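TL;DR need structure tokens for one chain.
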Amino acid sequence: MSTMQIIVLLVFYAAYRFTANSMQIFSYAVNVMLGWVTGIICGDAQTGLYIGATMTLMGLGVGGFGGSSVPDYTLGTILGTVFSITTGAVENGLAVAVTVSMFGTQLDVLRKTLGSFFIHKAMACNEKCDFHGVAVWVWLSDAMRVFVNVLPVALAITVGADAITAILNAIPPFITTGFSVAGGILPGLGFAILMRYMPVQKYGVFMILGFVLSAYLNMPMLAIAGLAFVAAYMIYQSLVEKEKAKAAGFGGVAGGMEDE
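>> reply
TL;DR here they are.
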């Protein structure tokens, strides 16, 4: 690849990563777009579409729910397309794409671990009403996330797939094990934080019901979600009716007082 191609690719990927959190629409199709644009930059849009579509199929149904860390198929799409085109073999590109995507799980844990430092700094500034400081720490957090994402792409493009594989193999097992343990804890922590702000004491019976339906009756998650929607809608309607009745009651009292 030429120097200009590398620069354009890195700028494109950095821009995508910077705006990825707000680009949730058509998230499953984003890898196709990434592969296509990367293919255009590298001179082979068809190969880019093939790699992007393949990685999209691999990532269907995979999401970082509740703070969990999952394979980074966007990173795999970028590097898989690059190495498929530069080596002339799609099989080599797919091998790199899968390997890098799995390693992206560890990068996600690293991003979240580093992010906790920045968010606590921002919270400290917020308590002091230093809103400029909050903005600075938030922007630094975004810059850190972009850097952690773009650095592997820059290294892989410049040093080659063999060097990246050697680096991954040279990482001590205790580091990868530690990241795996942290990645397993994060989903539980995410759900615990979510439950902290939910009225669990009032509606916790529905959580027990969902667990029973899933664990003992093997009901599909989509069906459980449908039942949860019905229950939530009925509770919402009940609360609305209570508010209307309360408002009507106050109105009647006010009207009676005015008549007197």
